[in-house]
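We were asked to recover a plausible sequence for a given structure. The inputs and outputs are reproduced exactly as logged, with field labels preserved.

PROBLEM: sequence recovery
POSITIONS: 439
GIVEN STRUCTURE:
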């Protein structure tokens, strides 16, 4: 990790040093490592729990199952949102069993204890039969921290963690121009997968795999290293800017023709691809100009606050430890892996797509094809059963199981990383610091 890069571009301001800690297999395979994460990592970070669109009215609630935990977020009478562990104080039964719901009181299905929306026990069977007296008004659901950002609600188990907006730094500022607040979640997919959650975290922390795993992206996303900007922030989060509306500048992909689908994308903005033969790279600027000219009349009110870069490029935000927000001007993708409750070789993969609400638009294109432009219900599957999680996500997931199997081999001696994969190194060093109690 000490050699100077020949091609990779880390921003001068956000190219943090790494130590070179070995990245060996046990962190992906061992129960001990999984327990260390459960003890020292997951209780200390903010978790994206859902979208505010599911919490519009008093009594609306979201349940988020995470590893061995389950958390509910509940809209209060005063408009605030509270989060509670989804565990009944009587004898531990899970209180809420569905993804979303709405209720005037949270009721346990076992012995019928009822809790007000603020978590206070309100009603029990046989209230006089408790040695310490009637517990109503005295017993509460165990509360967690709960804060929101844009269209999202988050929870955190750590009373000492930074406030959410500080935790997310620098993304609240970097994402402000997109105008995410009123975007609509049109896709809400998840799947059980046969690999450790970090396999996909590593994948999102590098673009080295694009030519092999996603070759078709090379015609409209420029994954050339000298055109890609990597950043690593003091908060532990990373990002990668990739030029969009531009074919790759990797030498063996360069062509004079305007490739598909870039030709169609250009045409949709009134640009004749024939005018750009031999200068395909100039289409990116032409699209910026066209979006500035035509965006508002086509309903994209949010273009006005975007930078030129935001109007055409892909901004991949990889937040420590397990959340990716991939931004394009018309689409926000949430890509995340969460640990299995007990098995280090399994995880849950989630893929949400949010889009701006364009007036009059009924349908919108997503990675699984066109879907109605309205709030989507959750669909869960088992990876490999034939349900698509999005065509690019499917490609990423396709290596997960085989990588997990390869990591199990006695012959694997630890990762050998390119310089451009430095964000993987930093991720694992931060993880080391958490699980070993150094931070
Ligand atoms: S476990 Fe909830 S009421 Fe008994
Ligand atoms: Fe990928």
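RECOVERED SEQUENCE:
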């Amino acid at each position: 990790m000490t050699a100077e890069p020949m091609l990779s571009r880390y921003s001068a301001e956000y190219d943090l040093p790494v130590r070179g800690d070995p990245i060996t297999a046990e962190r992906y395979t061992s129960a001990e490592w999984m327990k260390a994460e459960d003890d020292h990592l997951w209780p200390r970070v903010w978790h994206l729990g859902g979208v505010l669109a599911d919490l519009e009215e008093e009594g609306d609630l979201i349940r988020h199952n995470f590893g061995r935990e389950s958390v509910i977020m509940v809209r209060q009478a005063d408009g605030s949102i509270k989060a509670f562990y989804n565990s009944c104080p009587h004898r531990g039964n899970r209180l809420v069993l569905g993804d979303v719901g709405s209720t005037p009181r949270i009721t346990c299905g076992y012995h019928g204890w009822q809790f007000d929306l603020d978590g206070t026990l309100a009603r029990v069977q046989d209230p006089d039969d408790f040695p310490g007296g009637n517990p109503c008004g005295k017993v509460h659901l165990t509360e967690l921290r709960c804060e929101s950002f844009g269209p999202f609600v988050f929870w955190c188990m750590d009373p000492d963690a930074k406030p959410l907006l500080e935790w997310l730094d620098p993304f609240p500022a970097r994402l402000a121009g997109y105008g995410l607040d009123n975007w609509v979640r049109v896709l809400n997919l998840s799947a059980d997968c046969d690999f450790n959650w970090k396999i996909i975290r590593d994948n999102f922390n590098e673009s080295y795999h694009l030519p092999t795993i996603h070759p078709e992206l090379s015609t409209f996303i420029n994954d050339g290293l000298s055109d890609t900007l990597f950043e690593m922030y003091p908060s532990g989060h990373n990002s990668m800017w990739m030029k969009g509306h531009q074919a790759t500048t990797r030498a063996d992909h360069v062509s004079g023709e305007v490739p598909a689908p870039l030709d169609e994308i250009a045409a949709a903005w009134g640009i004749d691809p024939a005018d750009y033969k031999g200068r395909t790279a100039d289409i990116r600027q032409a699209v910026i100009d066209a979006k500035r000219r035509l965006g508002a009349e086509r309903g994209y009110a949010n273009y006005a606050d975007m930078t030129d870069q935001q109007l055409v490029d892909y901004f991949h935000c990889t937040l420590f430890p397990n959340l990716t927000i991939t931004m394009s001007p018309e689409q926000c993708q949430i890509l995340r892996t969460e640990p299995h409750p007990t098995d280090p070789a399994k995880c849950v993969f989630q893929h949400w797509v949010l889009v701006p609400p364009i007036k009059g638009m009924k349908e919108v294109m997503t990675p699984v094809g066109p879907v109605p432009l309205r709030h989507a219900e959750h669909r869960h599957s088992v990876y490999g059963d034939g349900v698509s999680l999005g065509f690019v996500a499917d490609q990423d997931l396709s290596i997960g199981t085989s990588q997990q199997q390869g990591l199990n081999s006695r012959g694997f001696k630890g990762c050998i990383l390119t310089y451009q994969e430095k964000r993987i190194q930093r991720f694992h060093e931060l993880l080391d610091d958490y699980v070993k109690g150094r931070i």
